[in-house]
Amino acid sequence: MRNFTIVDTLGILKACIVLAPLMFAPGYVIGWACDLFEFRHRRLVLRFVLAVPLTIAICPMLTYLLARFLEPGLWVFYIGVSAACVLFLGRDAGGVKLQSVSKYIWIALGLTVLWASVALGSLIDLQIGNQLYPPIEAYDHSVRTALIAAVARHIPPSNPFFANAAAPLRYHYLWLLFCSLPMKVFHFSPRYAVYSGVVWCGVGLICVIALGLKFLLRVQTGIEQKALLGVGLLCVTGLDILPILYLRTTLGSWAADMEWWNEVQITSWAGSLLWAPHHVAALIACFVAFLLLRHAADTSGSRAAIPVIVSGMAFASAAGLSVYVTFAFVVAIFLWLLALVARKVWKEAAMFGGAGVGALIWGLPYLTSLGNSGSGAAFAEFALRPFPLGLHFAQQIGINFTSQTALTIANAIFLPLNYALELGFFLAVGVVRLCQLFHGRVEASSDEQAAWTLVMASFLIGTFLRSSTTGSNDLGWRCFLPAQLILLLWGAVIVHDWLNGVVSRLSPRPVTHWALATLLILGLMGTAYQMFMLRVFPVLYDYRDISGLSWMDPDGQFGKRTYALRAVYELLDAQLPASAVLQSSPVTADPIPHMLYSGHDSAAATPWGDPECGTAFGGDPDLCALRVQNLIGLFELPDGGNLDTTCREYGIDAVIVVDSDRVWKEPSSWIWSRHPVVTNDYVRAFRCGTSAASVHR
Questions:
Q1: How many Å apart are CA 236 and CA 529, to the nearest integer?
Q2: Domain annotation covers residue 49
Q3: Phi and psi angles of residue 369, each rounded to the nearest 5 degrees, phi first
Q4: How far apart are CA 579 and CA 153, in angstroms?
Q5: pLDDT attached to residue 164
Q6: Which value, to the nearest 10 degrees, does the dihedral of the CA atoms of residues 639, 641, 643, 646 take?
Q7: Do the domain assignments include residue 370?
Q8: Which 3 state secondary structure label does DSSP give 2?
């Protein structure tokens, strides 16, 4: 019996190692060639810190343009920058002795390794005998696994959930494209490419904390200690543990993810990285561009053109990484431009405007390839941030809201409590920083104003706007990342001053320090709960009587069924080409494991339970409805509903039937008379259509 936990561990490590030169070398070489942030004159450690964020900022869009219009140039570029990076490192690091390396650098490396270990342990499938348990994050990563497999095959990609005829993929997929590059050379599971992106995105975020302290907060002393404290604050979230404990007391069940107590969450750093690293990558790209433009604002002559061009590429990359985070920065930059114009700082205003024009030029081929959305959903619409828990409290004391106006007023009243629970320690940090600014303990410099502009943009969007392009309000969730980063940087400075005995500057009352410490501890407890439940909840669901998720089997056989399904898909993957189309039931209540382990397109799949074949990613919902109706018969009718004819019509190469499908329970159905190519106690896979004919020949 294969141990999939060991297989996953080795596979993710391999993917991380293979991605390493692509993630490091371009940023290092481009930073040196363009002398970004005076790269050539910086210490070696700062060059290392700059390399990964610069790569994340520049390479997603550059990779797209090369892959689409000049694919040989793609490999010429990456081979060239890798070779150049080796030469630069050989020269720059040749005189460095290990004993001269600061202890803080060793600690930072240790924290980076610790993050990689935690991420790996959080993402691998946990095997117990013949039972297999993916993490809760598989709910999202199953979709991205299918997407990255499609992206790795060709650019521009097609919607993998609605194959034949191809529909252009409508999604911010550039992070997946960049992480898929090693798949073109080395054969490993698309899941491992997705998970390696999680690890490297965390590394990029660690580096960005140091860059923010140096180039935005302009920290002059103790920057190593403050950067390490900032990394440590990634483990802190809001006061989510309090609603979780309340719901446990009142409802008698534990939430699978700490964030789910609120309809519109402000996701913890751990949650953002493990669930949706592409949004964090967009934060990195936008923040690097923002820092670069601010830093270069006092550069004279034509040298200012290079930061503008590079920043334009970074903003274009961000648009393809996360449209929601990029939108937050667009609003922030608009506000910042208004401030610059009011102060008559024309040069910096022109640089930001030029970067915006450059971003549009760089990103136009990508944007035009996405096609038009036929869903009618709004990317952004007015809606006051809701707070269902507050409404629940009000109802408990006999206050009922019978009109939409009353609900809106109630949500407005509950906004301070909403933000206090979601941000906790970091909201207190913002209040302390504002008091310091008001009392003159912090200079109201241009950098300070720019930081507050990022915070303000996040709160304006998160309070008054929502998106309806998907079932969840992704705009309300992700727009807070810029504010979260700024609050974390301020928090690192405050905690450093506190630990070094200068707490009297923070507040005249010692009780404030104890309040901050309490919020800090509660934030750590929240993250600890989240990390634990994301990893072990599926195991607890099988072994304990707790409420599960819709994609988990309620019969206590989830672990065994998942192991059986993965084993079948791995055997099929060895038999079929990457372009093969695999089809499971389009109305299954359990689509997540299928998408997670298939790595192939489907004629009609249901990502996140979407009944319209994932046509939000591209395609016609009406055609989907007809297709689903024709495919259901394969899994519900005893005769299979003309299996081979249907497979040929939609280009399906194999059909996967599981024990929860209706035909499995019919002794006279076609699955018991037709020979499967792979079978076990829970799954039977059949070649069909043209594929079946080639097997018989």
A1: 11
A2: yes
A3: -80, -10
A4: 8
A5: 83
A6: 180
A7: no
A8: coil
pTM over 0.90, yes/no: yes
Amino acid identity at 663: V
Residues 6+ apart with CB under 8 A from 503: 497, 510, 513
Residue 204 sits at the vertex; the CA angle it makes with 339 and 104, to the nearest 5 degrees, is 105
- What the block records as the tokens of 6 is 């060991």
Q: What are residue 168's DSSP bridge partners? A: 158
Domain that holds residue 661: 558-696
More confident site: 513 or 549: 513
Q: Which CB contacts under 8 angstroms, 24+ apart, belong to 116-121?
A: 116/16, 116/199, 116/202, 116/203, 118/531, 119/195, 119/198, 119/199, 119/202, 119/273, 119/274, 120/9, 120/12, 120/13, 120/195, 120/199, 121/535
Residues 6 or more apart from 98 whose CB is under 8 A from it? none
**Amino acid identity, residue 625?**
A
Q: What is the DSSP letter of 131?
A: E
Structural domain contains residue 685: yes
What total number of domains does the chain contain?
2
Pairing state of beta strands 582-583 and 654-658? parallel
Q: Is residue 639 part of a domain?
A: yes
CB 164 within 8 A of CB 619: no
Backbone angles phi, psi at 297, to 5 degrees: -60, -25
> pLDDT value at position 500?
81
> Residue 420's Cα: distance from chain center in Å?
24
Q: Which residue has the tokens 């010692």?
A: 510
How does pLDDT run across 259-312, given as a tens digit for each residue? Answer: 989 989 999 999 999 999 999 999 999 999 999 999 998 765 557 899 999 999
**Cα gap 236→492, rounded to integer Å:** 12
pLDDT band at 508 (very low <50, low <70, confident <90, very high): very low
Tokens representing 420 are: 């206090």
Residues forming a β-bridge with 282: none
Q: Give the per-residue SS3 of 162-199.
A: CCCCCCECCCCCHHHHHHCHHHHCCCCCHHHHHHHHHH
How far apart, in whole angstroms, are the C-alpha atoms of residue 103 and residue 523?
28
Q: What are the φ and ψ backbone dihedral angles of 529, each rounded to 5 degrees?
A: -60, -45
Evaluate whether 205 touches 270 at the Cβ level (below 8 Å). Answer: no
Average pLDDT over residues 611-621: 79
Query: What is the per-residue burial (b if ≥16 Cβ within 10 Å, else e) of 492-519?
Result: bbbbbbbeeeebeebbeeeebeeebeeb
Tell me the residue type at 38.
E
pLDDT at 530: 96
Tell me which residue of 420, 314, 308 sits closest to 353, measured CA to CA: 308
